[in-house]
Design brief:
By secondary structure, the protein is α+β, with helices and mostly antiparallel strands. Helices cover 29% and strands 27% of the residues. It has helices at residues 2-17, 74-86, 100-103, 120-130, 133-144, 147-160, 182-193, 222-225, 268-282, 376-389, and strands at 37-38, 46-51, 56-61, 67-68, 95-97, 117-119, 179-180, 206-209, 214-217, 229-237, 241-250, 253-262, 283-286, 298-301, 307-308, 310-312, 318-321, 328-333, 337-339, 347-355, 358-367.
C-alpha cells in the first residue's frame, strides 16, 4: 500500500510540474503626465521652474529657446570639479599653477599672476561667489590639462544630463557661442542639488582668496533675502543679458528657477523668487500610497516553497496642481502565480500611478527570495520522509 501511494504521489507531482505558466500581458502604451504650464510673461527671453524631487517642470516661458548663458556656464565647471572630488581624482587641497591663458582673462577675476600656485578650494569659491573668469580657466586646466579638453568634458556631461540644446564653447561663458535653454539649465541645477555637501560656497555673500589679496562679492542677493535659499548664480554679460539660476528648499521640496536674457538692471532675483513662490503655492509634492494588493506574497508553483515574498522600488513624489491631488490612482500588474525556478530580485510586475488618465510613473515589483524548482530527487526525499512518519 505504501509503495502504491508513493508511485501515485510521484506521478501527480510531475504532472503538476508540466503545467505551463500564463503568458505575460503586453505593456500598455501611455501618455506621460506633466504638471508643466505656460507661465505668464516674464521680463526675460526665457524662464522655467522645476521641481527636483519629482523631476518635473512646473512653469515655463520659452523654456526650449537657445540663449547665451554667460556666467551660468560656470555652474557646469563647478559640477565637474565636485564630481572629480567625490570620485577621489581631485581634492580641495590640491593646487593649480596659473597659466598665461588664465592670467589673460578679462572681466570678473581674482587677478591671478602667471605661475602663481592656488588651491582648488580657492578656485571653486572664486567661481561660486565671485564669477571669476581667471579662476574658471585655471580650474579647467587643472582638471583636464587644457581648457579645450575641459570644454569637451562639459559637453559630454551636458549630454549625460539630458541637456540636449546646450553647447559649451568655453568654460567661463564669455564666448557668445556658449548657449543653453532655461529647461536645460534647470537640469544642471537639479544635478548640483544632488551634491548638497558641496554647495556651501553658493550661499556665501562675502569671501576672500589669495591670502586676502582678492575679495569675493556675490551678486546673488537672494541667498540673504529668501527663506530656504540654496543659492547658485546671478550674472550679467553684454551678449547674454541678465541671467539667474536659483533654488530654494521648503520642507521636503526643492524648487529651481532659471531666467535667461533679462534686461540689465532688472530685479532678476525678485523675479526668480516670485516664480518659485508661485510654484510652491500652486502645487504640492504628493507621495502616493503603495497598494495592498501588490504587497504579496505571490503563489509559487513547481517550487520547493509554495509562495514568494515581494519587494518594490522607491515610490517617488508627483508634483501636482492642487486641484489634481484627488485624481491619483494606482494600477497593479502582477501574475496570478510564479513558476519555479525563481531568482531573488527578479522583476515580476509593476504598480503604475496615474493622474486622471495620464501616466505619472511606475514602480517595479520584484521577488524577495529565491525558490528552487521541484526535482525528482526533491520529490523522492519528501515522500520518503512522509512515509517514514506513517
Amino acid at each position: 500500500m505504501k509503495v502504491f501511494a508513493f508511485l501515485t504521489a510521484v506521478i501527480c507531482a510531475f504532472a503538476l510540474m508540466s503545467i505551463a505558466a500564463p503568458a505575460a500581458e503586453p505593456a500598455e502604451q501611455l501618455l506621460t503626465y506633466s504638471p508643466e504650464r505656460e507661465s505668464e510673461s516674464v521680463n526675460a527671453a526665457a524662464a522655467s521652474v522645476y521641481e527636483v524631487g519629482s523631476r518635473s517642470f512646473i512653469y515655463s516661458y520659452n523654456s526650449s529657446e537657445q540663449c547665451p548663458i554667460g556666467h551660468l556656464a560656470k555652474l557646469m565647471v563647478y559640477l565637474l570639479a565636485v564630481e572629480k572630488i567625490e570620485s577621489g581624482e581631485l581634492s580641495l587641497s590640491d593646487t593649480a599653477t596659473v597659466s598665461a591663458r588664465a592670467n589673460s582673462m578679462q572681466g570678473a577675476q581674482i587677478w591671478l599672476d602667471m605661475g602663481e600656485v592656488i588651491t582648488v578650494d580657492e578656485l571653486m569659491r572664486s567661481i561660486a561667489v565671485g564669477n571669476a573668469n581667471d579662476a574658471c580657466v585655471a580650474l579647467a586646466e587643472r582638471v583636464a590639462g587644457s581648457e579645450e579638453a575641459f570644454v569637451d568634458m562639459m559637453n559630454s556631461e551636458a549630454l549625460r544630463l539630458g541637456m540636449k540644446n546646450t553647447v559649451f564653447k568655453d568654460s567661463s561663458g564669455l564666448d557668445p557661442g556658449t548657449v543653453s535653454t532655461a529647461a536645460d539649465i534647470s537640469l544642471l541645477i537639479a544635478e548640483l542639488c544632488r551634491h548638497p555637501d558641496s554647495l556651501a560656497p553658493f550661499s556665501v555673500r562675502l569671501d576672500e582668496v589669495r591670502g586676502g589679496k582678492a575679495q569675493l562679492v556675490s551678486l546673488n542677493t537672494l541667498i540673504s533675502s529668501c527663506k530656504g535659499a540654496i543659492g547658485f548664480k546671478i550674472g550679467t554679460l553684454e551678449h547674454s543679458g541678465e541671467c539667474a539660476a536659483e533654488a530654494v528648499r521648503r520642507g521636503d521640496r526643492i524648487i529651481c528657477s532659471v531666467i535667461l536674457g533679462s534686461d540689465p538692471g532688472a530685479d532678476i532675483a525678485a523675479e526668480a523668487e516670485r516664480l518659485m513662490n508661485k510654484a510652491l503655492a500652486d502645487t504640492v509634492l504628493f507621495i502616493p500610497d503603495y497598494p495592498e494588493e501588490a504587497a504579496g506574497p505571490l503563489k509559487a508553483v513547481h517550487g520547493q516553497a509554495h509562495e514568494c515574498s515581494l519587494e518594490h522600488g522607491d515610490i517617488q513624489g508627483i508634483t501636482l496642481h492642487t486641484e489634481d491631488k484627488e485624481s491619483v490612482t494606482a494600477r497593479v500588474t502582477l501574475p496570478a502565480k510564479l513558476e519555479a525556478p525563481v531568482g531573488k530580485g527578479e522583476v515580476v510586475g509593476s504598480v503604475s500611478y496615474y493622474v486622471g488618465d495620464r501616466f505619472a510613473f511606475s514602480v517595479k515589483i520584484f521577488t524577495g527570495e529565491s525558490i528552487a524548482p521541484v526535482t525528482f530527487g526533491y520529490v523522492f526525499k519528501k515522500i520518503w520522509l512522509n512515509l517514514l512518519k506513517c
